Amino acid sequence: MAGTDSGDAGAAARVTVLGLGDMGSVIARTFVERGYRTTVWNRSAGRAAPLVDLGAASAATAAEAVAASELVVVCLLDSAAVDEVLDSVGSAVAGRVLVNLTSGSPAQARAYERWAHERGAEYLDGKIMGDPPHVGTAHLLLPLSGSLRAFEAHESVLRELGGVAYHGTDAGAAAVEFMAQVALGYEMLIGFLHVLALVDAEGGDVAAFAERAAGLVTGYPPLLTSIGEAVRDGDYPPDLGPLRVQAALMDDMIDHRESVGVEAVRMREVKDLMDRRIADGHGGQGFSSLFALLAKRR
User: Fold this and answer.
1) Where are the strands (E) in 110-149, listed by range?
2) Is 179 exposed, middle or buried (0-12, 13-18, 19+ CB in 10 A)?
3) What pairing do the DSSP bridges indicate for beta strands 14-18 and 97-100?
4) Which of 118, 135, 191, 279 is deepest in the core (most CB within 10 A)?
């Protein structure tokens, strides 16, 4: 059963959802179905009709929707849409908790927090890691950051949407987590596609290789954890073997790729970093030590 807010004892808690796209609509429906008094608003008003049929209230303007609830969840297409909606809301946000689940950068999150504070509101930034069918289940992850007081007050409501993790008072921290996790996926998958191109160029069965590779990656979690600890501590053990041994393999990998017309840019970058670390006297360290050079680039 939904909780109660301090201004409406005995009644279901109120929540407003701004934005009824594919994700926003499911978020609003989840709140309605779990007993929250839900007010919705969308620039195209027709998107609200199915939710009204379920019991939601539809506001004519974003400002009216914000005024209806202490907790206001924003889920729009992009930051340009958020800017437009917040401009229309203005002072109506005073006294509210604004939870922005729209994708965006850490810098944008911090800017929205300043905007909210200037208007007497508290701010939480969140990023949705999952698809609309995952809303309301443990398969959806919701990193959040910003006001600790707002998080503690509304954590139970936000947990209706999925697994919640609070990343601290820096409003940009959730976006850092989101961007890093999504980037890790893309970095891994584009590398995987290049590897499949290599297997295919040699006449191999890419599907069979992919099945074997799926088993291989299950061994990586301990390595990722140890690399993170090495980077944190600045102490780089010979993970994957000493760099001077790893570097000897890189030339063969580069030559092989280029001999069959497969791009080798990333392999050349790795080889260059290894060579530089070895030249600096760190040939006994492991792969994690390449971070020391990446950090210097900042």
Assistant:
1) 122-126, 141-146
2) middle
3) unpaired
4) 135
32 by Cβ neighbours in 10 Å (0-12 / 13-18 / 19+) ranks as buried
Burial of 133 (0-12, 13-18, 19+ CB in 10 A): exposed
Q: CATH 3.40.50.720 spans which residues of the chain?
A: 14-176
**Amino acid in position 30:** T
User: Which CATH entry fits the domain spanning 207-296: 1.10.1040.10, 3.10.180.10, 1.10.10.10, 1.10.530.10?
Assistant: 1.10.1040.10
Alpha carbons 147 and 113: distance in angstroms, whole number:
9
Q: Is 36 helix (H, G, I), strand (E, B) or coil?
A: coil
Whether pLDDT at 4 is above 80:
no
| Spatial contact of 267 and 224, defined as CB atoms under 8 Å apart | no
CATH class of the 14-176 domain in this structure: alpha beta
Tokens 């060579």 map to which residue? 275
Name which of 9-23, 200-214, 261-275, 278-292 the model is least confident about: 9-23
Is the pLDDT reported for residue 6 higher than 70? no
What are the percentages of helix, strand and coil residues in the chain, rounded to 5? 55, 10, 30
Q: pTM score, two decimals?
A: 0.86
- CA–chain centroid gap for 170, Å, is 15
Query: What are the pLDDT digits (tens) for 45-81?
Result: 899 999 999 999 999 999 999 999 999 999 999 999 9
Query: Is the pLDDT at 10 greater than 60, yes or no?
Result: no
pLDDT for the residue numbered 267: 94
CATH 1.10.1040.10 range(s) for the chain read 207-296
